[in-house]
């Protein structure tokens, strides 16, 4: 039992944890799986900080039963995971690999037997390599292949899975995959990147329709966006303009077409010839009503005017005097600010926090426990802000910790640990961290202990 003051969440609030296929599954070429852009990217020298890959990862493909038993032990009410497109369709189109679908079907059935609601993400960054060889997301055809893939998965699992997320963080897929090139496929081409944004959004709309048409029950479908409040570094006018542009590309470029069937005008003007070509009807498809908006929140963006920065002339900085994790500034009030803004500007009927969490350099103490107090504090502080937002009227329905397990953190390899559960990569042994036990208590009491903010 928690002691002291508690912040109670509404009845029916959903408590979960999240993972993604490439980050945990391993088994990169088993049972007919085709290669993805991540399988190829990890082989390029110098791209992954520790030279590693997701070939084995947390070996979840073989340890899924144990992992679900851990979820049940923690009392998770929901589990958000992603489906590997190339496991289901090895070349991304036409031919289905039934063994791939079998794996996810077993997973789903076991989750349901424990009363853990599956939240399926269809795309968490592992594009079939064969589709990248035909241009990847900058190629408009990819959007239509994605819809076919969505239909194939829903035909198998749509009779028992209610909650679906089309894309995870299309901003990161397009901008970091095709413009800065830090993530797969590692391309550096702004024209390709902005085309990718449009095709990802189009593919979302097409997939929403395909899922609803192909499933045997009424689904709840949404999308998970990485959204940050954007703050100017100073009150200077140039910094404020920089912040508006940064917000335009990071946030409004996705929210406006999804909710208002239009792209932000200031960004269209700013991009000029780099702005993607749009066909008639695209925006109607993109803005098909969704059942919920997924928000991945980790940090805010503080931005300064910088003439030398291509196109947007805005650069993100790390403000002095702030608190930091190994990856980002820690800024809990940004979650409240963001949720209120979403509610005021876009009025989504339901919101889920589909990711929130922090990397901590965890290790085992002599007694075999993992004392990740920093994570408990991070989660508590963010949940307090979520609680405040609910009190202010935001329709926030649930919360997913990133992540259930320590896993392969993309270009940072295994140098970051985000899990509620520690993974010893030598033995693949799982150890529930203190934060995991703490979260189990949160779920049981549907409440978080109030903490003092200094
Ligand atoms: C998000 C990704 C997720 C994980 C966390 C730390 O951007 O969706 O896969 O890498 O960051």
Model description:
The structure is a single chain. The protein is of the alpha/beta class. It has a single domain, classed as TIM Barrel, CATH 3.20.20. The chain contains 15 helices and 17 strands. The strands form five sheets. It has an eight-stranded parallel beta barrel with strand order 2-3-4-5-6-8-13-14, surrounded by five helices. Helix 14 links the parallel strand 13 and strand 14. Helix 13 runs parallel beside helix 14. The two termini are 25 Å apart. The structure holds beta-D-fucopyranose.
Structural features:
single chain, 454 residues, alpha/beta, TIM Barrel, eight-stranded parallel β-barrel, three-stranded mixed sheet, binds beta-D-fucopyranose
Compute the number of strand runs.
17
CATH superfamily: Glycosidases
> What sort of overall outline do the alpha carbons produce when their principal axes are compared?
globular
Q: Spans with pLDDT under 50 lasting ≥5 residues?
A: none
> What spatial order of strands do you see in the largest sheet?
2-3-4-5-6-8-13-14
- Report the top-level CATH class: Alpha Beta
Radius of gyration: 21 Å
Small-molecule binders here are: beta-D-fucopyranose
Largest sheet: 8 strands, parallel, barrel
Overall average residue pLDDT:
98
What is the level-2 CATH architecture name?
A: Alpha-Beta Barrel
* Count of folded domains: 1
The count of helical stretches stands at 15
């Amino acid at each position: 039992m928690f002691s002291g003051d508690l912040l109670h969440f509404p009845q029916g609030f959903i408590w979960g944890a999240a993972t993604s296929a490439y980050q945990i599954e391993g088994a990169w070429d088993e049972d007919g799986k085709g290669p993805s852009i991540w399988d190829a990217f990890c082989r390029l020298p110098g791209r992954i900080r520790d030279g590693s890959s997701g070939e084995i990862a947390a070996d979840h493909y073989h340890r899924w039963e144990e992992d679900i038993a851990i979820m049940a032990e923690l009392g998770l009410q929901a589990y958000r995971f992603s489906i590997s497109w190339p496991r289901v369709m090895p070349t991304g189109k036409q031919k289905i690999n039934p063994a791939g679908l079998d794996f996810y079907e077993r997973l789903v059935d076991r989750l349901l037997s424990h009363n853990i609601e599956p939240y399926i993400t269809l795309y968490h960054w592992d594009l079939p390599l064969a589709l990248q060889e035909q241009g990847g997301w900058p190629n408009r055809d990819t959007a239509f292949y994605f819809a076919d893939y969505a239909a194939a998965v829903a035909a198998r699992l749509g009779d028992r899975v209610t909650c679906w997320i089309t894309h995870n963080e299309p901003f990161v897929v397009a901008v970091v995959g095709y413009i800065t090139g830090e993530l797969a496929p590692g391309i550096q081409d702004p024209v390709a990147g902005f085309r990718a944004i449009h095709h990802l959004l189009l593919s979302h709309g097409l997939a929403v329709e395909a899922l609803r048409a192909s499933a045997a029950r009424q689904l709840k479908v949404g999308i998970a966006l990485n959204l940050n409040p954007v703050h100017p570094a100073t009150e200077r006018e140039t910094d404020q303009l920089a912040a508006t542009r940064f917000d335009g590309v990071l946030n409004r470029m996705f929210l406006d077409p999804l909710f208002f069937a239009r792209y932000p005008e200031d960004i269209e003007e700013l991009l000029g010839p780099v702005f993607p070509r749009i066909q008639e009807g695209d925006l109607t498809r993109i803005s098909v009503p969704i059942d919920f908006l997924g928000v991945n929140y980790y940090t805010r963006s503080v931005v300064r005017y910088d003439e030398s920065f291509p196109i947007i002339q805005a650069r993100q900085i790390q403000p002095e005097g702030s608190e930091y994790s190994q990856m980002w500034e820690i800024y809990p009030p940004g979650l409240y600010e963001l949720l209120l803004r979403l509610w005021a500007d876009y009025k989504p009927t339901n919101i889920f926090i589909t990711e929130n969490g922090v990397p901590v350099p965890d290790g085992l103490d002599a007694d075999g426990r993992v004392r990740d107090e920093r994570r408990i504090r991070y989660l508590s502080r963010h949940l307090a802000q979520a609680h405040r937002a609910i009190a202010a009227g935001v329709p926030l329905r649930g919360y997913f910790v990133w992540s259930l397990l320590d896993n392969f953190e993309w270009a940072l390899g295994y140098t970051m640990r985000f899990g509620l559960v520690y993974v010893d990569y030598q033995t693949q042994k799982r150890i529930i961290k203190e934060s995991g036990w703490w979260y189990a208590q949160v779920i049981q009491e549907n409440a978080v202990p109030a903490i003092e903010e200094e």
